[in-house]
Amino acid sequence: AQSVTQLDSQVPVFEEAPVELRCNYSSSVSVYLFWYVQYPNQGLQLLLKYLSGSTLVKGINGFEAEFNKSQTSFHLRKPSVHISDTAEYFCAVSDRDYKLSFGAGTTVTVRA
Amino acid sequence: GAVVSQHPSRVICKSGTSVKIECRSLDFQATTMFWYRQFPKQSLMLMATSNEGSKATYEQGVEKDKFLINHASLTLSTLTVTSAHPEDSSFYICSASVAGGPNTDTQYFGPGTRLTVL
Fold it and tell me: What's the pLDDT score for residue A96?
């Protein structure tokens, strides 16, 4: 079984500032890792995913995440946020059956 | 591409009645659909996995007789909450994926259905 911990429930950030959302996971087997974003009144959208290979993964909208196996982390970063990045962000993990386990989510609020 | 819709987006019903929620993949054929439940300020919890033409697989603690799932075609899955009670009030979200191909690992999510049971 796997589980995900998102260490920050809310992250306020000013426009054009960098942001990092932390995610740690636990699993007894090899995992796949995902970050999803949920904009207000919309469904979850995939930001990026790590399956194998390079530990630095680049996603849509300028986001990237780094898989760190020794620290069991998959933190999400963006060097400069926009107002439109205000949303709920979910980290998720799956094993080879592709069933997702989600973290509790991090609310990012970008202010001018 | 890869759009998933849900209907209705919101539903209010009386205690004891049944409610059906539809999940459709609009521009692709979904071999697998997933149903999640999300409580306020909490994460998505997987309820069940359904494959087209076969019985759904329910997660531990999910009552299969209460949450009936049908995946009759490659583009439609339905979740029926039977004899709904106020504690069933929640946000229900479906997702769909395609077996094989480069994105077999990716789930595409619907916008969710807010169920309120009075």
Answer: 73
